Amino acid sequence: MNDLMIEASDVGKAFGAQKALDGVGIAVPKGTVLGLLGHNGAGKTTLVNVLTTMLPPDAGTARVAGFDVVRQAHQVRSRIGLTGQFAAVDEGLSGLDNLVLIARLLGASPREARARGTELLELFGLSDAAKRPSRTYSGGMRRRLDLAASLVGHPEVIFLDEPTTGLDPASRLGLWEIVENLVTDGTTVLLTTQYLDEADRLADSITVLAQGKVVAAGTSAELKAQVGQRSVTVTLADASDVPKAQEALERAGMQPVPALDTLTAPVASSRELAVVVRALDEVGLEATELALGEPTLDDVYLTLAAHAA
Amino acid sequence: MTATLAAAPHTRWRGTDFATQVLVLTQRSLRTLVSDPRMIVFSILQPLIMLTLFSQIFASIANTPGFPRGVAYIDYLMPAILVNTAMQSALQAGVGLVTDMKNGVLARFRSLPIRLGSVLVARSLSDLVRTAAQLVLMLLFAVVIFGFAPAGGVVGMTAALALALAVGWGLGWIFLAVAAWLRNAELMQTVGFLAMFPLMFASSAYVPVAGLPGWLQAVANVNPLTYAVDAARALALAHPVTGVVGALVTSAALAVVGWVFAVRGFRRPL
């Protein structure tokens, strides 16, 4: 029994001379979220298109829900949901009619289709707008309708291609909650994003793509450990004390970087906080705030992308 | 939010057959048409203006030699207007397909376990319905306002309308194929207009071929539209009917060729 819901190995895809994907491999166990991180043109959407049978790969193999994306495209399509960067809804139809249409195409009877559509609209807070043409929806509503449309057939695997791009913070949070609920229910999710906090919050594991290649893979913590360093940030009450504090920290063997009224220095462990406090105490200074910072995925991404380039 | 999005006990729907896909998708296209009938109204404005202008400007053509004796110009003109309207409508089928592609809903269809050909057939069928509605409206205007009363009577009119519809349907498949490859509505409109405008005039549509300058006669004689218009006219005027079978066979051939290329073009990634 193989519980990998997405498996890709050595997948390649070129558009002319441009290699969009170059030997990409990923593996996503059932009920987990893979965050696919990369800037524009890194190959994220191309990989999603290959995995959702929209685009045949030039090289390598990929299986989704146990079926080959090339030879068993139909079976794959029966088991996946796709939410792309642009809302794939019929603007001329109402929200309900959009969902009914998808359900009918999947094989539901008119009655079942209506029931499923109504249920999803309610879950996504769109019941009040059910009968309105979707062209009158706001961006956030349209995105929710789009996500609802990709869930009509109870898919086992869901692909979300930059689902929160262009959304306001509240809509973004709402969408995150929906994704978390889906995963709780056992759905497998592949999420592409440019937002590092999004991958950090939702993904069980993260794959970083740059120029069509996997440049790093692992959990968020593993990636951070790979490249990032912890740092301590000292905030001083009086900005004019910054040079004095800097001197003190340098004497203690640290490399502080001054800013307006703060100093930031890399540290190996939280124990060095004591060193900072002591060094400041010796010169008669007191920090109004002392913060230990984890490396962000920004650090990870910038470091890795710089290596790949 | 309750956590019943995906794992709630359910039976997986196992897909549908081609006929159901076509039916559901045709209903969808017609529904958008009904919810926004401006499309139908505006699409008959142009042929209506042509009907008004031509029936007035060219009325004296009926007195020229070579014009069928005892035939009113409106009776001569109307079958051509029907064919022309059906052709414009065929172009609209292609434009509609491009709009669908831009709409984004097609991206959704592509990720569903359906046959993509059903999307094309549905488009073609719904356009057939739309064109039929347009042609019937045009015919009513012609009868009530312009005194269209051909010798063929109601039967002749209906037959001419059906023929125009068949021609428009066949040509519609060509435009669906063009749309599936070009994927650009503005370009389609321009190309379609450029192709159809001279074709309509260099034919028997508005004046008898014998009344055209020599070189234009040569063009008109090889212009398939001449034959389509002649056949529709013969049906309406109750003249000896020639060319109807030819027009139908040509339309069917266009449809087959269009289908082959449309499906191939349509399968290409968006």
Describe this structure in words.
Chain B: GO terms for molecular function: ABC-type transporter activity. Chain B: InterPro entries: ABC2_TM (IPR013525), ABC2_TM_bact-type (IPR047817), ABC_2_transport (IPR000412), Nod_factor_ABC_transporter (IPR051784). Chain B: It is a multi-pass membrane protein. The complex is a heterodimer of chains A (309) and B (270). With 309 residues, chain A is α/β, with parallel strands linked by helices. Chain A contains eleven helices and 14 strands. Chain A has helices at residues 44-51, 73-77, 95-106, 110-123, 139-151, 169-184, 196-202, 220-227, 242-251, 272-282, 297-308, and strands at residues 4-15, 18-29, 33-37, 59-64, 67-68, 80-83, 157-161, 188-193, 205-210, 213-218, 230-236, 257-258, 262-267, 287-293. In chain A, α8 packs across α11. Chain A is elongated, with a radius of gyration of 24 Å. Chain B is mostly helical and 270 residues long. In chain B, α1 (18-35) crosses α5, α5 (117-144) runs antiparallel to α6 and α6 (153-182) crosses α7. The mean pLDDT of chain B is 87.
Order of helices and strands of chain A: EEEHEEHEHHHEHEHEEHEHEEHEH
**Secondary-structure class of chain A:** alpha/beta
Helix content of chain A: 25-40%
> What ranges of chain B have pLDDT less than 50 throughout 5 or more consecutive residues?
none
Sheet with the most strands of chain A? Answer: 6 strands, mixed
Strand order of the largest sheet of chain A: 6-7-8-3-9-10
Find the count of extended strands of chain B (DSSP E, 2+ residues): 0
Strand content of chain A: 25-35%
Reading the helices and strands of chain B in chain order gives HHHHHHHHHH
GO molecular function (chain A): ATP binding; ATP hydrolysis activity
Subcellular location (chain A): Cell membrane
GO biological process, one term (chain A): doxorubicin transport
Protein name (chain A): ABC-2 type transport system ATP-binding protein
